[in-house]
């Protein structure tokens, strides 16, 4: 089947997509966007997190066909050309990146949190990132990175980008309606 999807602001069309193919496969294997990682392919780790119409989802659990006519934003779409997004820069400066496998998902989840709650508490940060597993860092540096990004207005720049139904959503860590109960996002 053919899939038409806007990815990071660019309209993309891909033919011969298999009905069972995931959005993650479409992004990584067909569209040349390897930022979202495939660590578990079961909705458990959050490393494949991308925005779908402004809502973070596990791309491994979304069928590529479900993205037809919709908008996807990946970790690659957070940066402004060569300039890192403040959230990305904070992760680098706080030493929150080791092997980096979890990092793209954490960046999207942090970006999502800070665009809803500009100065989250530690509890709100932990809850918002609970669906993102990291095997390397012990999480302390990740928490430092989120705090640092918050002090720099890490979510402010993209507020206008958010879909209207998400823009006013109250509270951090509220259950995410991804339409897929298996997804930890
Ligand atoms: S690859 Fe682990 S949640 Fe998708
Ligand atoms: S930095 Fe290696 S899994 Fe998080």
Automatic annotation (TrEMBL):
InterPro entries: 2Fe-2S-bd, 2Fe-2S-bd_dom_sf, 2Fe-2S_ferredoxin-like_sf, 2Fe-2S_ferredoxin-type, 2Fe2S_fd_BS, Beta-grasp_dom_sf, Diverse_Oxidoreductases. Residues 153-185 are annotated as: Disordered. This is Carbon-monoxide dehydrogenase small subunit. Gene3D superfamilies: 3.10.20.30, [2Fe-2S]-binding domain. The gene is coxS_2. Residues 1-78 form the 2Fe-2S ferredoxin-type domain. GO terms for molecular function: 2 iron, 2 sulfur cluster binding; metal ion binding; oxidoreductase activity. Residues 155-168 have a biased composition (Basic and acidic residues). Pfam families: Fer2 (PF00111), Fer2_2 (PF01799). Transmembrane segments: none annotated. Keywords: 2Fe-2S, Iron, Iron-sulfur, Metal-binding, Oxidoreductase.
